Amino acid sequence: LYIKNNLDFFNLRKALWLFAASGFFQSLIAIGQFFSHISLGLKHFEAGTYNANIPGVATFFVNGVKFIRAYGTAPHPNVLGVFIFLSIFCLYFLYLSRSKFFESNLGEAILDISLAILILGAFLTFSRAVIIVFALTSFCLFAVAWLRKFFERKRICGLFILRKKAFTSHH
Predict the structure, then answer these.
(1) What is the pLDDT of residues 12-52, one digit of tens each?
(2) Of 140, 56, 126, whose CA–CA distance to 84 is shortest?
(3) Confidence of residue 72 (pLDDT cuts 50, 70, 90)
(4) I want to staple 125 with a disulfide (CB 3.0 to 4.6 A). Which of 3, 66, 81, 107 is the partner?
(5) Residues 59, 61, 67: CA angle, nearest 5 degrees
(6) How far apart are CA 69 and CA 80, in angstroms?
(7) Which of 90, 170, 78, 56 minimizes the C-alpha distance to 128?
(8) How does the average pLDDT of the chain come out, rounded?
(9) H/E run at residue 60
(10) Of 60, 32, 59, 56, nearest to 45 (Cα)?
(11) Burial 68-97 (b: 16+ CB within 10 A, else e)
(12) pTM confidence score
């Protein structure tokens, strides 16, 4: 709030775009790490070297095969999961606040691809708390958006019916 109120160059919308873009790139790194089963060698960005055989690296087993959880550039998959979760909701906010960027077909395609990559990145962290909170908050957010549209339609239909009755009663 201090930065927003005291620095003229700060723009909340730009900050949300930057946060979402950062989460997108973190997700790309996480996807690469998960499918290669090792760290990507980004020694200036990754918090460490990750390999399924290194003690202390967050792993899980599927059919006897050991997989590492996606770290991105974070020190732990849960930290990455929270970061990506926040990035997803930055995109949700930008979309729901009627950002002009999303009005074009290209903008909608970029939104869809970005959300798919962010959600995949979040799930590849295998952070159960993040996944549960993401599912619940997404459900609540979309339920509220649907209810808002539902009641706007009812209000518009009600206004149309009232106008029609008023118009026919004068004739």
Answers:
(1) 788 888 999 999 999 998 898 888 776 666 665 655 666 66
(2) 126
(3) confident
(4) 81
(5) 50
(6) 10
(7) 78
(8) 79
(9) strand 59-62
(10) 32
(11) bbbbbbbeebbbbbbbbbebbbbbbbbbee
(12) 0.71
